[in-house]
Structure formats: C-alpha cells, structure tokens
From TrEMBL:
Its main location: secreted. Gene3D superfamilies: Cupredoxins - blue copper proteins. Its cofactor is Cu cation. It comes from Dillenia turbinata. This is L-ascorbate oxidase. CDD domains: CuRO_3_AAO. Keywords: Copper, Disulfide bond, Glycoprotein, Metal-binding, Oxidoreductase, Repeat, Secreted. Residues 298-319 are annotated as: Disordered. One of its GO terms (molecular function) is L-ascorbate oxidase activity. GO terms for cellular component: extracellular region.
Length: 554
C-alpha cells in the first residue's frame, strides 16, 4: 500500500462553466477538482488550503467509510470545526476498497459553488474486475445556478421564503450551455455571458470504434434528479456506489445526487458520425435545458454536430421507470454480502416539509435538523453535555394516522440538534417514508446519503409502508449495498446497516437546499472506541482549552 499525497488549493475564481460568468470554488484552478486516484489499501493524504479569503471550508470524502479515522470525514459541525481562511488542514484516510467515490464541500451550501470531484480506487495488483473493458472514463453530472450560494441560503431562511428555483443549466463534467442570447445583447451582457468561451464548449468523450468503455457516472446535483443517455447506445450497469451490480442494461440511466455508477458502453454504432450524450431533469417539472455532450467516434472531428436532435429524455413525472431501475439494482453473484436476517432496532424517518415560526423547513419525524456550534465528535469525546440537546429525537411518528398523500398539518414541528445514539455493533433498520410536501399533489424524490457506512437496500415501495407485510418482501438474498439511495415520490425505502464504525455520522438528503433546511439526522455509535482526536479538527479556542487540560491548569 502506498501513500497518495494531494495538495488542494481551494479558492474563488471567475469561470464560465455554462458560458455565464460566475464566482466558482475551484480546487487547484479547476471545477470539478482533480480526480483522486488510488489503489485499494492506500492511504490518501490531502492537504487542503483554504484560500477562500473570508469563508470557512470543509471537504467530505463521499463513500469512503473512514474506519478508524472518523475525524477525517469532513463534515463541518459533525466531525470537525471548519477550516478557517488561510489555514491548511490535513485529511488522512485509508481507501479500503476499490470503486467510484466522490468528494465535495460540506460547509453551508458550498458544494454547489463548484467544489466537487471524483475518487477512483483501483483493485489491488493481481485482482481483476468481474467485467472486461478497454478504457476507463469518468464524468460527474451537476446542475448549475447563476446566483450565489449566499443568495440562495439567505432566500431559504427568509420570510417571505425565496426558493432557489430550477437550475439554469446542467453540467456534464463541469461544462454546460446557457443560452446567452436570452439575456439580450447589451455590452454588459457580452462580458458576462459568452457562448464562444472555450470553458463552456461541450464535454467530449472520444471513443475508438469497436472498443468497450467503462464509464463512471456520478451525480452531485444541488437539486435535480437526472436521466442520462448516450444516443443509440446501451448502458450496462455494473457498479453502484462502489459495489458490483448483477449486470442489467438500460437505454437511460436515472441518477440521483450522491450516487455513482459504472456502466459499460461499446462503441458499436455507425462510426461515420458523432452521437449526443444527454442529461435531463426528472421528478421535478423541468425548466432547465437538456445538458449536452458529444460521444465522438474517432476520427470524426470532436466538434462535429451529431445529425440528429438531442432527446429530451423520459417523461419527468413518470415514477414507474425510476422505481423499476431502483428495484433492478442487485448485488452481483459471487460478490454478495448477505445482511443479518433480523434487526435490533427499526427507525422510521418520515420526510416532511413544515413551517416553523413562519420559516420553511424540511423535517424528519417533525424535527428539523440544525448543526451545533461544537462538532458532535468533539463534544462527545470531551463530555460537553451542553454542546447539543441531549434528548434523543423520535424513532418514529404517529404512523397510522399520518396522511402522506395530503398537505398535512405539521404545526408541531420543531428544530433540534439532538442525535440518534446507536448501540455499538447492532443491526439497524431505517424506513424512509416520503409524503406530500406543503404544495398540494407534490411529493419529491429525496436521495438519502449515509456517512461512514454502506447499507443494504432491502426494498422500495409506493404509498405508506406496511409494517405487517412489507418486511416479508425484503430482499435478504442479494440486496445491493449503497451509500446513497432515492426515496421515490409518495414511496418508502427500507435500509439495513450495522453500527460497527465508531464515530459520529450524518445521514441526510443530498439535495443541498433540503439538507440546509433541516432534512437530516446524525447517528453516534461506539464513540468511546474512537482514538484520541487530532487537535487539527478543533477551532483555536478549543485547542487552547485542550492544551490547558493537558498541562493540568486553566
Ligand atoms: Cu455527499 Cu453529507 O454528503
Ligand atoms: Cu430532499
């Protein structure tokens, strides 16, 4: 095993990802940031320097379980104090299995300002993948706004509420296209939006006819659920969130924020032309143009326009094919980790939108999550009982009486920074239950992401979860393990995981504004088994008080 050392210089720069000028958070000058490449068992060391000037920072390594290093998870308020402007913070963790993972900012709504990238972990020498391919490529899909994360965050926490709205464009590996002419033709617009800027020329994937490609596709959208297609080509799904999938083939891949997939695609179509790579919004009424890239058959010119019109994707409001894809994802034969057949604790998480004191929130069991000032990991290790609310949040709600298909009366919703304490090394079931939002006839897709673990996906269903019958239908034979999973509109998703990773772990909706509005929880497990915390995760004042404790004075 090797050490893979990266230096990340994080700063704001003016960029034109979709031809429109925006202040973008870059890593070493680019967004998406550099891909971290490592081999299973390697130790990744990332020295992150915060050059944002006036803004804090934290970076989360999404899908990496951080066994033995919970302080390197990068979740501000949970596992560390933020990295202050001018400071350098060292993340150090082992990548203990091969697969496709991500990294992104985990402070405020910074992720959607452009701080994101991919982590590719290769198998150990001498071990091969259970599928063959000639080349390995990766892309991250994203949605893009023109106003700043501050405008968005301020709007979400204002009365009257200002919703972030639909994204201006969809980016394929950092490249999209906003229609500059929609802004008029004044000279001020000319500098602000420039459709000939090379930064917004479409993403091109050049392929050699007859060759087979492993394409790693990830989504880090702020809001959107996406469909993804390569015109005229089948996509065979072989990996999901770092776990092998029993292969199945789709024309169109649905992907939610926080998910990664590997698909195999063979360049087996008419090689005399190029094809569109398209991504479209689903699950919300789209108001964003199709994201476009070019699947370029060598030796055609990469800028040669495909002769066809790009597809606008599947109907946005048809949940059935999306649920069908979710149900099709099973662990690959020969790579199945079977789950325990029973669980020790079942926690139901009802997802609702609420108003609290006139402000819009998202809640879980009528509790809207807020972050404490002192990160939980530090508070728990140091026994700082005043750092957060010690009353545990509820394991469920008045399930039988809750009207999931209606705009419900959630007037008793509250905010809290309390957490779920899990008995160490037990089996936990989580039932995520969706419901109607505060808009009539509206239920959104929420992609839930768990830090520090993979979970087994035991089942999905529509309507209200049935405690008597639905558990009998759980897939206990070959469930896929994932770290991010959608909860479909008006539906439920059942997960199982083991509380075997000492630390404090977020579990939240990966939609940036939903998490910001409180759609998340925190699990603690085995925190007494966590080794001594590095002082770098503490803010200066805490470091000083720790030093006083050590020398025995105050
Ligand atoms: Cu990728 Cu807590 O998120
Ligand atoms: Cu959500």
């Amino acid at each position: 095993a090797r050490i893979r050392h990266y230096n990340f210089d994080v700063r704001y720069e003016f960029k034109f990802p979709d031809c429109y000028q925006k202040l973008v958070i870059t890593v070493n000058g680019v967004s998406p940031g550099p891909t971290i490449v490592a081999q299973q068992g390697d130790t990744v060391v990332v020295d992150v320097t915060n050059d944002l000037g006036t803004e804090n920072l934290a970076i989360h390594w999404h899908g990496i379980r951080q066994r033995g290093t919970p302080w390197s998870d990068g979740t501000e308020g949970v596992t560390q104090c933020p990295i202050l402007p001018g400071e350098t913070f060292t993340y150090k963790f082992v990548v203990d299995r091969a697969g496709t993972y991500l990294y992104h900012a985990h402070y405020g709504m910074q992720r959607e300002a452009g701080l994101y990238g991919m982590i590719r972990v290769a198998l150990p020498d001498g071990v091969s993948e259970p599928f063959a391919y000639d080349y390995d490529r990766s892309i991250i899909l994203n949605d893009w706004y023109h106003n700043s994360t501050y405008e968005q965050a301020a709007g979400l926490s204002s009365i009257p509420f200002v919703w972030v709205g639909e994204p201006k464009s969809l980016l394929i590996h950092g490249r999209g296209r906003f229609n500059c002419s929609s802004l008029g033709t004044t000279s001020s617009v000319a500098g602000l939006c420039n459709s000939t800027n090379p930064e917004c020329s479409p993403y091109v994937m050049t392929v050699v006819p007859g060759k087979k490609y492993r394409l790693r596709v990830a989504s880090l959208t702020a809001l959107s659920a996406l469909s993804f297609e390569i015109e005229g080509h089948n996509l065979t799904v072989v990996e999901a969130d770092g776990n092998y999938v029993e292969p199945f083939t789709v024309k169109n891949l649905f992907i939610y924020s926080g998910e990664t997939y590997s698909v195999l695609v063979t360049a087996n179509q008419d090689p005399s032309r190029n094809y569109w790579i398209t991504t479209n919004v689903v699950s919300r009424k789209p108001a964003t143009p199709t994201g476009l890239g070019v699947f370029n058959y060598y030796p055609n010119h990469p800028r040669r326009r495909p002769p066809t019109d790009p597809t606008s994707g599947p109907p946005w409001n048809d949940t059935a094919p999306r649920l069908a894809q979710s149900l099709a994802i099973k662990a690959k034969q020969g790579y199945i980790h079977t789950p325990p057949l029973t669980s020790d604790r079942v926690i139901v998480f009802l997802n609702t939108q609420n108003k609290i004191n006139g402000y819009f929130h998202w809640s879980v069991n009528n509790v809207s999550f807020t972050l404490p000032q002192t990160p939980y990991l530090i508070a728990l290790k140091k026994g700082l009982l005043n750092a957060f609310n010690q009353t545990p949040p509820p394991d469920g709600y008045d399930f039988l009486n809750y009207p999931i298909f209606k705009v419900a009366n959630n007037t008793n919703a509250t905010s809290s920074n309390s957490i779920y304490k899990l008995k160490f090394n037990t089996t936990i079931d989580v039932i995520l239950q969706n419901a109607n939002s505060m808009t009539p006839d509206t239920s959104e897709t929420h992609p839930w992401h768990l830090h520090g673990h993979d979970f087994w996906v035991l089942g999905y269903g529509q309507g209200k979860f049935d405690f008597n019958n639905d558990p009998k239908k759980y897939n206990l034979a070959n469930p896929i393990m994932k770290n991010t999973v959608p909860v479909h509109p008006y539906g439920w998703t059942a997960l199982r995981f083991q509380s075997d990773n000492p630390g404090v772990w977020s579990f939240h909706c990966h939609i940036e504004s939903h998490f910001y509005m409180g759609m998340g929880v925190v699990f603690e497990e085995g925190v007494e088994k966590v080794g001594e915390l590095p002082s770098s995760i503490m803010a200066k004042a805490q470091k000083a008080s720790t030093a006083r404790e050590v020398i025995g004075g105050s």
